[in-house]
Amino acid sequence: MVASSVVTTIMILNYHHRLADTHEMPNWVRAVFLQWIPWLLRMSRPGEKITRKTIMMQNKMKELDLKEKSSKSLLANVLDMDDDFRPSSTLPHSHVHPHHPSHAHPPQHNNGGFIRLPNNSLPPQAEENALASSLQPGVHRELSLILKEIRVITDKIRYDEESAVIENDWKFAAMVLDRLCLITFTLFTIIATAAVLAAAPHVIVM
Prior knowledge:
Distance between the termini: 33 Å
Shape: elongated
Radius of gyration: 35 Å
Oligomer: single chain
Structural class: mainly alpha
Mean pLDDT: 75
Largest sheet: 2 strands, antiparallel
Strand content: under 5%
Number of helices: 6
């Protein structure tokens, strides 16, 4: 009994101090120590009640998440774009030939006094954006660097949150194992003590 208690104590301490960088929780450990044994021992986590229904719902949600991630992986690889984009030094409408119909016919005024743009010309907002990009080529480089820094910060925050969730799962698994060992050793001690006293010939004097 002493040897088994030492071994289980080492396992509990090992589970409690595991990190997301060093250990990945297997599926059987998650199912046994985070779902079914806590359900049998009537244990619960703060803000989360462990029941048979919640266990089945978590398993279904996990399957749906795996299917969703596998379906989005191809689309994410296709839509992945390089951050180092290079602005064009010329305006988009500078490649139009001088004798193009859009240059041959000036903008006409309608009856309301508004300027009617030709079919092949850019809107004023797009022309202003293209002009600003051509006049300030260094701004895009600064924006790309700022975007990279923001992505690094957000990835770090997301990684810390995921690591905290994994570490809390290991700590809860250690607490479940500790509670299981407490109940097992207590019952074993009571049963063994009763058996020894009952088998002793001189304990009960008739």
